Amino acid sequence: MKRVYIIGGGAAGFFCAINLAKKNPSYKITILEKTTKLLSKVLVSGGGRCNVTNQCFEISDLIKNYPRGSKELRSVFSKFALQDTIEWFAQRNVKLHAEADNRMFPTSNNSQTIIDCFLDEAKKYGVTIQTKTDVKEIKKQNDKIVLSVIVNDSNAQELIGDAVVVTSGGFNQEKAYGFLQGTQHTIVKPLPSLFTFNIPNDSVTQLMGLSVPNAKVKVAVTNYLFEGPLLITHWGFSGPAVLKLSAYAAEYFHQKSYEAAIHINWLNKEYEEIKLALEQLQKQQHKALPKNTNIFVLPKRLWEHILIKADLNNDKPWSEITKKSINKLVEVLFADAYTMRGKTTFKEEFVTCGGIELKEIDFKTMQSKKMNGLHFAGEVINIDGITGGFNFQAAWSTAWVAANSI
Question: Residue ranges of the domains in the chain?
Answer without folding.
Answer: 3-191+348-405, 195-345
